[in-house]
Structure formats: structure tokens, C-alpha cells
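Repro case for the chain-ordering regression, as requested:
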Amino acid sequence: MKVEVDCIPCVFKQALSASRRCTNDVYTLRRVQYELMKLVPQYSFELTPAEMSYYAVKAANEVLGCEDPFAEEKRQSNVAMLDLYPRLKKIVESSSDRLHTAVKIAAAGNVIDMGILHRFDVRGAIDDLLNGSFRIDHYESLRRDLASAERILYLADNAGEIVADKLFLETLGRKDVVVAVKESPILNDATMEDARAVGLDEVAAVISNGSGMIGTILDDCSEEFRDVFHAADVIISKGQGNYEGLDERPENIYFVLKAKCPVVARALGVEEGEAVLKSNAKGNR
Amino acid sequence: MKVEVDCIPCVFKQALSASRRCTNDVYTLRRVQYELMKLVPQYSFELTPAEMSYYAVKAANEVLGCEDPFAEEKRQSNVAMLDLYPRLKKIVESSSDRLHTAVKIAAAGNVIDMGILHRFDVRGAIDDLLNGSFRIDHYESLRRDLASAERILYLADNAGEIVADKLFLETLGRKDVVVAVKESPILNDATMEDARAVGLDEVAAVISNGSGMIGTILDDCSEEFRDVFHAADVIISKGQGNYEGLDERPENIYFVLKAKCPVVARALGVEEGEAVLKSNAKGNR
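-- result from build under test --
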């Protein structure tokens, strides 16, 4: 999907939120906004929203001289989710369809997003989704595909959230899944350091996608990653950023995400705040 | 109060929302946003948020060649609130403190705002406030001041909302209150045409403030209005725009509003979405 005009105000808001992680100085914060007013008109509307956000956040970081504004919050959300992990594990183990429960928890974990959202309640999101259902639920198709798949690729999204991803992969019960994380820090997206911090590497083969961009921008990814991507029988893609860049790909992708903004909600045909487990295969409803 | 850096992304969003009332053409909508990127850096941070919004919305209307984008929605909200009026009237009449109930309904009516909010539920807001309370409630002080006041000025905010204002003024039971509306259309703010459409002129002396700006920017108001303003014993001021420009005035003002954005909520010391009936007198808590 491509940038919509609604992404313009949003990109200023995202950049402001990211900037506040580096400074509270109002003059510097304004300077970042003014800088973006020069840059945003140069961005093509052929970009995905994730790409536009990436360029804006990078420009903000440059003005601020701040490379990884979310480092501390990422550590905190990894720790907070690890604290929650034993309870989540029990919920999965006591449920009638463990894998369905685990994928719901993985989707609810996607509420952890410091780029778009400014407040989030991960426990509330998990309760809501466990008591409710995906707005679009292609779980049966995913289950069948996973059962026969030889090569499974899992595209991680955020730090903290990857604890829920780890629980899903444990529940799936195979150790040959490849999990891709970001090469370098961007927003609160998970990197190799985060994967190791939560022990994701104990349940899967974690690789870097070779890119530090938001989402999965294949042209920016490493050749090694692209090979894995193209060869996968099933790809599970977490979060908005990945959806924005991969929604029109021909590979067999299941998008697991919360719709956090009106633009993506519209593209998915759901309401803002709703979670989906959506296959990109035309055969699925 | 003055513009904060958070007002920048918000002003792009407000202008987009207003622009959509005139056109769905994405190229035109982008053009408005690009135009604002040239203009916003020229706006002084000594402005109130309402003034900045005004300049941005006016600039957007100019690009669009569209003078009154909210005309139809204003008519609709007047009609919708008039439909609701008999029920609201009964609620007031059956309550133990009619004036307190009426001012709560007037505050809840302030949820009708097409500038900042994009969805609102006026019935829900009324129920919430009737079942709950103002976050800051200087009602006792207002009641005493109104009892002894000779000259009362009421600064209206939005179309539709003025039906709830009318109910409050009926409940107050005196016909000498002066209600000020906007001289010309801006967002969904009430003008003389709206006041007449809902019969506000039957319960009070409705005047124009002589200005078409958001809020009450005294320097832009007519001399006639300024005379009324300075001579008033009590001023009841509806909505954010008025609060933003008048919060530091020495007159005896009671602000009745819902805090619709984080900047105003912070200034009031309340949470976003909460309603207040706040005196600007230092003696009040």
C-alpha cells in the first residue's frame, strides 16, 4: 500500500513523539518539525507509509544527533513482557486450541508500538483478544499451511512483542522457523540484541533482515534475507510496517497485526484498533 | 495559553479534516498540506493554538476556494440537537439541581466539534457527564455570581451545541443574558444564522462578536462586543478556542468545556476528554 494524505499529519506526530525521547527542549523540537516541513514535500507518494515514517524519523534523529531514542524503552518492554511470560504460557497451555491462543497473544503483543501509539495497555489488549476474536481470521488456513510447510519465515516487529512471538513459536513446537529482526535500531523495532535478550534465539533461527528500515523493504534487505524470503512456504508477518510494504507480494504471507491507524484499518477493511490474522492469498475469504 | 509544539501535527490534521469537507481529490488535499508546510514555520509561537488553527484553516480554505466547508454539517447538528432538545429539557426539569444539570448538558454539548474531533457521540457525552461530574467544578461559585450579576455574557462555541446553551439559558430563567456568536463562518462555530435556526435569540440577546476567528480574539472583535465583554460581571465561556485565548484575562470568566486535546488538558490539569466548569478567579480552588 502507498502513502495517503492522512500520513502527512501522522508523520509529524510520529517524529515529535520520537524526538521527545531525545530532548524536551521546545526549540529543538520545533526545529525538527520545521526541518520536516522542508523534507516531506520531497517524499514520493509512491512510498509506503512505513518508508515515509522511516525517512522522517531518520531526519529527526539527525537533527537531534540521536541514533537510538528508544533503546531504554525497548529494554523495559522486553523485561515487562518477560515478566508477563509465565502467565501467558499458562493461558496457552490451559486453552483448547493452543496455537490459536498463542497467535492471538502474538497479535495482542503488537499493541506495543512507540512509533504510532503513545499509550498502550498490553495486558488489556491480550484480555480483549482472548475474550474476543480476530476481525479477519484465516487461522484454519494458517494451521494447515504450517502443518505442511518446510520453510517458515517469521517477520518480527517490536521489542517486547517478541516475547509473545517466542511463545507462539514454542507452541508451534518446531525449531526450524527462521525469525527475521532489524539490522539496526529504528523506533522500537526488535533487533538481534532484543532477540537475544528475550531468548528468541533459543526457539528459532534468528537472522537479521539486513535493513534498518521500518517494515520489510525488500530492496533494502540483504541478499541472504531475500533468499530466505523467496524460498519460504509460509511467511508470518507481524505489524503494520510489514503489512504496508508486503500486502501486494505474491508469496504466501499471513499478516498478524493490530490496525493502529485509519489508513491501515481502511486498507484491511476493519476498524482502528482491531486485530487481524489475514492471508494475502486470494482463495481466502 | 500559547501554541505548543504538539499543535503543529494537529494543525495539519485539522486542516486536512476541514479540506475533506470541500474535496476528496487527493492531489488537492496534498497541495493544501504542502502549502501549510510553507506557512506554519512563519507562525509565531506567541499565538494561541486557536489562532494558529485559524490561520491554517483559512489558508486551506483559500487553496480550496471554499469559504464555509462546514455549512451543511452545522445545519445537521442544529437539527439533531433540536430533535434531542425535548428529552434534554425533561432531564433538566426532573433533576434536583436544574441549573447544575443544565450546565453539565451545555458542557457535554461541547463534544460537537468538527475542528479537532472527527467522531463524536453527543448522547454518550451527555449520559457520561450526567452520571459523572465535572473534573473541575466551580458551580457553586458560578451560581452565586449569576444570582448577583447584572450583566452576563455568554460566549457560544459550536453549532448544535448552542441548543444545549439555549436550554441552560432557559433554565437560568433571565432574558437579559447577552450571547455572542461569530461574525462569519469558521469551522463549525455558531454564527447568527445558527443562533436564529435554533431559537437562541428567543431566550437571550444574541450579538456578533465582530470576528470570524476561532475563539475570542479581543483585538479582532468589534468595539461593541469589547464593551460588552469588559462591562460583564460574569462571562461564561464555552469551548477550547475561547479558553485558549481568554485563560489569562482579568475578567470574571467561567470556562465550560471538554478538554479535547493533550495541550489544553495539560493546561487545565485534567485528562483528555474530561469536562470542566472552571473559574479563572484565583480564589477558586
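Ordering looks correct now. Residues 7-64 of chain A form one domain.
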